[in-house]
User: Which sequence fits this backbone?
């Protein structure tokens, strides 16, 4: 399995308040998945990465928040 860095979006307050992508930690990539989110216009599907952290927890992370590590 390939190692990945998983990121999360955190609110950063200061001169320019907004969201920033920050490292959550390294994990092992298992496979691609699919998730959905309901909105005013109906449900929308988006691609995810199914990852396993070193402590054994599994997460379904949006694809844009995963970076493959070359090792």
Assistant:
């Amino acid at each position: 399995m390939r190692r990945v860095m998983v990121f999360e979006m955190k609110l950063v307050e200061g001169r320019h308040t907004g969201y920033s992508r920050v490292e959550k930690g390294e994990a092992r990539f298992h496979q691609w998945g699919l998730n959905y989110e309901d909105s005013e216009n109906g449900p929308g599907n988006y691609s995810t990465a199914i990852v396993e952290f070193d402590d054994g927890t599994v997460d379904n992370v949006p694809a844009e928040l995963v970076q493959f590590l070359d090792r």
